[in-house]
């Protein structure tokens, strides 16, 4: 009997399965067709790209490279348009053949700058991928991927601006270099072109500048040191920062070990090897204000992001705030203030409090001997020169110039009774009685200062100092009142300048404008000011600080040399002496001491105040004396110094004192009452105060 299974009708389920099989087969056909189309398109695009690359490669090979970058002299100008310094184009160069360069330096350079130099064709795609991966993992730009050829192209023909167009041009020129020159020629050009800092271009000039020898004579240790410098001559020069330079040398040596060029033992021995650097020849004679000049270059490179090579030889114009007369006055004051044979150092920084412009900077006594700028030293305790920020905090918290504390040996308890602090006055001199704020400031009484900071809270004093631009580390402890935490002269001059400007702190400015060789503005300063304190509080503080130069004040011995209103504060520690002060036109900080924490004698400590006085008179010789402008919100009354109350006619001593309006005493002194005497007329008292000020002004004016 015949099989009837193939003739029976399909079930619905079987028909659905067959339909799905047909759909899948149709989709496979469509996918294969699409793949064939895309493969054809991809092949066409690939051929097109290859053709474009070949055409581009042929075109590039027929093009001439542009003329090399022509170095131009850059200039730094003072506020009057005079030249502070010329940055000579080209620096010191001496080209040599590759055979005249130490193999160690060649190997070190390749290991740290371009380990695949002999494998790529100008652009290292593998290096790009590796750098991108490292930067992605760290979420920062830790690694770059510019090849040695790209660096050479940039140095020869391009600026250092960070734009995509410049990057593209750099890649094109790198490719052309690889077409026209072999690797040895490119490496030779690079080593003769690269900048090693301090005016040295190329390895021969660098070997001579740093070690006083030919490039062929460099040891492994010397080569690793030099190879690390071009990455950032300002950061890695051993003349500027030996720690950074040694860290970079270690990095170079480690790279050489990883490349199998040297052994670990050789690297360790080279790192330990003492290096004999040639004394750096100063180019200070080419201009003036060398410490300021270095500061300007540092600000331009590190803060404003201007490329160092552009500054060194790009024909830029840097316009600064420096006043040549005030700078000369500063240099003369420092020179005359310390005996020629002394090893004691000094620093002076002057700022215009009205706009923050830096007018003078002296970072040491002899730039040729030592380029360290002590104006920015952050290891020096300001001592009592810090006290104005304690007393300003007190004024802002309700104390007045007649607030009284007892001056006697005192043990202060803090940290909830767990700690004690026992300050001492200079030479253990104590009044053994109550004194007021003006007396404490004039005589620099330490006991009063600690009483004050304990009353207002050390944390509030820290906050006040921060408002005035003092960013150095500080702890809210009682000793803060005596200036036990280091602050730089730069910070102190700027902070005191805010008091001179009625409580307005202007951010210090050294550079007003930078232009490139074509006159295009690369940077222009924008004024930045904050109200650090009210005008009334700043004025009362200024009136108190004037007493430092009056009879009984710690700077009274130089008051005769200053023919104008001046306020300030002295400060002395076992290692440092300061005078920070200001007039309405100028704020200045003077520091004297030794570089290596050597104690100073009393005679050496007394040199800061005469330097300050000499400087102020020289700097402002052509400026008429001016009173500090009195703002609204202050009143001046006569008080009895013994009681702090309003002075009556019978008081044997009557002192004009300035208060924040509403905080002046209202009760008259009755300790010296005599029968029949009347209270003084307030209008007459005001007239007497104004007359006293007028007499002072005439004395200052006439000398």
Automatic annotation (TrEMBL):
GO aspect biological process, one term: proteolysis
Main localisation: membrane
GO cellular component terms, A-Z: outer membrane-bounded periplasmic space; plasma membrane
Gene3D superfamilies tied to this protein: Biosynthetic peptidoglycan transglycosylase-like (1.10.3810.10), DD-peptidase/beta-lactamase superfamily (3.40.710.10)
GO molecular function, one term: serine-type D-Ala-D-Ala carboxypeptidase activity
Localization annotation: Cell membrane
SUPFAM superfamilies tied to this protein: beta-lactamase/transpeptidase-like, Lysozyme-like
Keywords attached to this entry: Carboxypeptidase, Cell membrane, Cell shape, Cell wall biogenesis/degradation, Glycosyltransferase, Hydrolase, Membrane, Multifunctional enzyme, Peptidoglycan synthesis, Protease, Transferase, Transmembrane, Transmembrane helix
Reaction it catalyzes: Preferential cleavage: (Ac)2-L-Lys-D-Ala-|-D-Ala. Also transpeptidation of peptidyl-alanyl moieties that are N-acyl substituents of D-alanine; [GlcNAc-(1->4)-Mur2Ac(oyl-L-Ala-gamma-D-Glu-L-Lys-D-Ala-D-Ala)](n)-di-trans,octa-cis-undecaprenyl diphosphate + beta-D-GlcNAc-(1->4)-Mur2Ac(oyl-L-Ala-gamma-D-Glu-L-Lys-D-Ala-D-Ala)-di-trans,octa-cis-undecaprenyl diphosphate = [GlcNAc-(1->4)-Mur2Ac(oyl-L-Ala-gamma-D-Glu-L-Lys-D-Ala-D-Ala)](n+1)-di-trans,octa-cis-undecaprenyl diphosphate + di-trans,octa-cis-undecaprenyl diphosphate + H(+)
A Pfam family reported for this protein in Swiss-Prot or TrEMBL: Transgly
Transmembrane segments: 37-60
Domain Penicillin-binding protein transpeptidase, residue spans: 348-616
The Glycosyl transferase family domain, residue ranges: 83-256
Family: In the C-terminal section; belongs to the transpeptidase family.
Official protein name in the record: Penicillin-binding protein, 1A family
């Amino acid at each position: 009997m015949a099989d009837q299974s193939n003739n029976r009708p399909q079930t619905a389920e079987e028909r659905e399965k067959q339909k799905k099989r047909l759909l899948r087969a149709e989709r496979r056909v469509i996918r294969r067709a699409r793949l064939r189309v895309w493969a054809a398109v991809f092949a066409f695009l690939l051929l097109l790209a290859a053709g474009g690359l070949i055409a581009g490669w042929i075109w590039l090979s027929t093009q001439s490279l542009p003329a090399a970058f022509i170095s131009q002299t850059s200039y730094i100008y003072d506020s009057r348009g005079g030249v502070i310094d010329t940055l000579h184009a080209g620096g010191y160069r001496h080209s040599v053949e590759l055979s005249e360069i130490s193999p160690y330096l060649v190997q070190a350079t390749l290991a740290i700058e371009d380990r695949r130099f002999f494998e790529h064709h100008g652009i290292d795609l593998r290096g790009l991928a590796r750098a991108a991966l490292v930067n992605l993992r760290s979420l920062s730009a830790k690694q770059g991927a510019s090849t040695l050829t790209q660096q050479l192209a940039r140095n020869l023909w391009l600026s250092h601006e960070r734009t995509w167009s410049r990057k593209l041009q750099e890649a094109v020129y790198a490719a052309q270099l690889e077409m026209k020159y072999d690797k040895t020629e490119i490496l030779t050009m690079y080593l003769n072109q690269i900048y090693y800092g301090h005016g040295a271009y190329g390895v021969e000039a660098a070997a001579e500048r740093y070690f006083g020898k030919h490039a062929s004579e460099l040891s492994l240790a010397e080569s690793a040191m030099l190879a690390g410098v071009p990455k950032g001559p300002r950061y890695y020069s051993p003349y500027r920062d030996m720690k950074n330079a040694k860290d970079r040398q270690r990095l170079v040596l480690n790279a050489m070990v990883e490349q199998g060029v040297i052994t670990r033992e050789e690297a360790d021995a080279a790192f330990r090897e003492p290096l004999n650097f040639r004394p750096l020849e100063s180019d200070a004679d080419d201009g003036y204000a060398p410490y300021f000049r270095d500061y300007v270059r540092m600000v331009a490179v590190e803060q404003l992001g201007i490329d160092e090579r552009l500054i060194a030889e790009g024909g830029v114009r840097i316009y600064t705030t420096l006043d040549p007369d005030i700078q000369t006055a500063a240099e003369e004051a420092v020179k005359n203030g310390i005996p020629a044979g002394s090893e004691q150092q000094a620093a002076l920084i002057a700022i215009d409090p009205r706009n923050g412009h830096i007018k003078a900077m002296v970072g040491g006594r002899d730039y040729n001997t030592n380029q360290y700028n002590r104006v920015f030293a952050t290891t020096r305790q300001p001592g009592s020169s810090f006290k104005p920020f304690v007393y300003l905090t007190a004024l802002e918290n309700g104390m007045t110039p007649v607030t009284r504390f007892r001056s006697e040996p005192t043990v202060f308890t803090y940290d909830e009774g767990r700690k004690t602090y026992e300050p001492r006055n200079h030479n253990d001199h104590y009044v053994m009685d109550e004194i007021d704020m003006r007396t404490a400031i004039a005589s620099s009484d330490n006991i009063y200062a600690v009483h004050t900071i304990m009353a207002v809270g050390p944390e509030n004093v820290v906050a006040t100092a921060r408002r005035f631009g003092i960013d150095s580390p500080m702890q809210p402890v009682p000793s803060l009142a005596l200036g036990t935490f280091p602050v730089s002269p730069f910070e102190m001059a700027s902070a005191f300048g805010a008091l001179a400007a009625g409580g307005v702190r202007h951010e210090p400015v050294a550079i007003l404008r930078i232009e490139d060789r074509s006159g295009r503005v690369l940077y222009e300063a924008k004024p930045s000011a904050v109200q650090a304190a009210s005008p009334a509080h700043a004025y009362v503080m200024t009136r108190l600080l004037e007493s430092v130069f009056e009879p009984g004040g710690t700077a009274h011995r130089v008051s005769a040399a200053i023919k104008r209103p001046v306020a300030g504060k002295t400060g002395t520690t076992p290692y440092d002496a300061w005078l920070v002060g200001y007039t309405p036109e100028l704020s200045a900080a003077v520091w004297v001491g030794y570089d290596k924490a050597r104690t100073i004698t009393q005679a050496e400590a007394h040199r800061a105040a005469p330097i300050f006085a000499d400087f102020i008179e020289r700097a402002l010789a052509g400026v008429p004396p001016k009173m500090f402008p009195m703002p609204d919100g202050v009143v001046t009354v006569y008080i009895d110094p013994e009681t702090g109350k309003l002075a009556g006619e019978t008081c044997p001593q009557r002192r004009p004192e300035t208060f924040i309006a509403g905080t002046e005493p209202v009760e008259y002194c009755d300790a010296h009452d005599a029968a029949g005497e009347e209270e003084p007329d307030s209008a007459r008292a005001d007239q007497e105060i104004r007359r006293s000020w007028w007499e002072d002004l005439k004395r200052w004016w006439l000398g």
